[in-house]
Write a structure and sequence with these properties.
With 429 residues, the chain is an alpha/beta fold. It contains 14 helices and 13 strands. The protein is globular, with a radius of gyration of 24 Å.
Length: 429
Amino acid sequence: MRIGLQGLGKLGLPVALAIESKGHEVCGYDIDERVHEIIRIRKLPYREKGAQELLDKTNIEIKDIPELVSFADIIFVPIQTPHHPKYEGITSLPTERMDFDYSFLKAGIRNLSEEIERQGKDKIVIIISTVLPGTIRREILPLLGPHTKLCYNPFFIAMGTTIDDFLNPEFVLFGVENEHAAKVTEKFYKTIHDRPFCKMSIESAEMTKIAYNTFITAKITIVNTIMEICHKTPGANVDDVTNALKMATDRIISTKYMSGGMGDSGACHPRDCIALSWLSRNLKLGYDIYESLMKSRENQTIWFYNLILNEFVKTKYPIVILGYTFKKNTNLTIGSHALLLESILREQPHSWLTNEPLYFSKYDPWVDKDIIEFKSPKIFFIGVNHDEFINFKFPKGSVVIDPWRFISEQEGVKLIKVGIGEKVSDVLV
């Protein structure tokens, strides 16, 4: 099939490369000249597993909208629906709430549909952007002409592993507005993988996508609450608790997102919770659970801050957040829980116990170009469980706070494994 993408950014380009790898002809459109340069020089400026290898041999061309419409059997639309940075989960939770910004998506869809109508032939257009329930019918469908056959197909992907996630999903979520378009798209997906094709109304698909994302936030938040309780309970070990819960696959949970660590991060989940908090208020729901999830995530970060502060009071060492991407082995930082911790450190520039300034910095080998060697003792907080940190040598005298519990003991270094309480014998003494 001939597949077009209206947008070749950090989502669109990896998906285009993945589709091309399955033997389809692919072209794309993008207004950003930096994207044109990436295609021209065949060099990806961000880290995306498997993408550079596919980019090296790609035949993808960038076309204008008329050419894209004329070329493609199916046009995927991965145009961003951004939130203001204060709604990304890297700062304290704002009091006010707001919906996503649909202006980019609306402008792109309007432009695309107008060209489809000019050419006068039916085209399948599939939005993959995350939106709140009811958005497409309210904001998008009124913009379309009769030849634009719209469906909604949000992906379950994470930046950094987009290609693997697209080629190997749990299922394909598909909101149907046009049955013929759904049948053609289902046939297309059978060339990509053999996973279930889950059809429903557009509104149900909108809700499924954002419920999926925010459910992960809930899962991580609950597990990290268990971690805090274990840390404060002599004899308790969060890994023992969660490893037991992971066996309860019949009634409770799967094994994913069931290890204590940093809070939920990334471009989707925190912002989706904040957006659903806005929707909960707008719909006057009985209880805004999404605000509670984000406040719990934030309060857990404040608890991490207090662990750091407790060690600062004892040592007066500078503080280093070691790792601040949104997950391990990527250079993307959007929605990072570690950056929320940095924000809280900035909001509290002095220790309330000593009235002394808190000196802190951050370092991530996946982001920072210069390699930093730490020679004097510091308080290290492991913000991301990068593989590089497993054998990281800390200066003697340092304090290491490890919410992942993957750093090994080192001579002369105080290691605090978050989620493992003191030995019962030590407490009884």
